[in-house]
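Exercise 7. Predict the joint structure of the components listed below.
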Amino acid sequence: MQNKKIVIFGSGNVAFHIGKAFLRNDYSILQVVGRSEKSTTILSELLNCSSNIGYNNINMDADIYILAVNDSSIAEIVDNVSFGDKLVIHTSGSITLDVFKSLKNYGVIYPLQTFSKQREIDMKKVPLFVEANNEQSMRNILSIAKQLSNNVELADSEKRKTLHLSAVFACNFTNHMLAISEQVLINHNLKFDYLKPLIIETLEKALQQSPLNIQTGPAVRNDHITIDRHLELLADSEEYQKLYSFVSESIIKMYSKQNK
Amino acid sequence: MQNKKIVIFGSGNVAFHIGKAFLRNDYSILQVVGRSEKSTTILSELLNCSSNIGYNNINMDADIYILAVNDSSIAEIVDNVSFGDKLVIHTSGSITLDVFKSLKNYGVIYPLQTFSKQREIDMKKVPLFVEANNEQSMRNILSIAKQLSNNVELADSEKRKTLHLSAVFACNFTNHMLAISEQVLINHNLKFDYLKPLIIETLEKALQQSPLNIQTGPAVRNDHITIDRHLELLADSEEYQKLYSFVSESIIKMYSKQNK
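Solution:
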């Protein structure tokens, strides 16, 4: 793809990181289009381009329009902007390609990563899953994705949804278990720092071997005495007690099935 | 403590790693006492000492007896062995000190870590939580623990139980979420490797900041459209579907409470 003029919709975490990656790869970023005045201005200054709130005055001189927005905003943007034959790309894990079916050239670049503005991300290592509506769009999208990352794969909408689902377990739910462990310690005036060597080892083990094969602890041992003691300790929080029971039961079921 | 002759009960993961740590610190390990012929022999060969199965022929020449066994075996050992005034130490997170109340000198060294025989652990960095029944036992146990690790803390039985409970969330439950994400990918012929950059970033973020403050994903955004789509995708597994709903609800509750 010769021309590298782009407009980015969105001013959140994905827009922020993908925008910086485009800038590093010498794309000419014309505009950031957002809803929030503050974060749109900040990102446009960072990317050294103009900013625009809403659907009027969108710069239509770009070759590529990146929709790094909330899932629910993608269809709304399609309804409100005349993209003609420009290449339009969204970055969502769970929105299927046909959200764009009224357009001519379109596709998806889904980055399988969790982004926060405060943290640097090496985009070259982020797996990017791409999909497109025709051969020309695919050629262009592959070329763009390969400039951003060394880890580009094809994925249709179904595969992408499954990846997104697995990411919710691996990232959000994993983090929630850590958040509860932190809350339990805070409630007893204990430092979360104590858990850090354990957390690091748990993760290194899971990544080197396989989380399915390395489970330890009371549930996988079917140690109901310890489980009951822990439930007693959680007597002041019905919520955590239920979660403890539920996840323990799920572990017991997973491994009793495997042993049969 | 002048004399460093010890006998280790147990031949599992904790006995294996704590035994190796004692050996590195020039303790004279007299015997490994176990239930499983095979693993007891292997560990005794590794520690260059005799092995013994059951309660006959236990070497009573040691100064220190380490009970690195299943929780349920601790009381059984106390009932079956005459320890006299020897120092007896267990390594369990959830067994209170009074399991030893019929003895004279005793305590606990609880290593807050997950151990597997296949993996090296730097014991110097493992937090060891100690408790003892009298001043002399405490002096001896502190001296032993400080030889094994640079990270020694006092913890009574209640504090230790809370640490163990939080460790179940941080280690076993975290690993279970990863195991399900792996299973979801396997079920769809996708590689778990795709998730590794995401998992590493999730963990680094949680450890640098605080898991309570960095939650992302559909649940914390209250994005019921994505949640419902994921539940549909999990239609072939009622078990995972329930877990997905349950953990999502728990995240929604945690953060709606915080925002009030």
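Discussion. Chain A has two domains: 5-155, 161-259.
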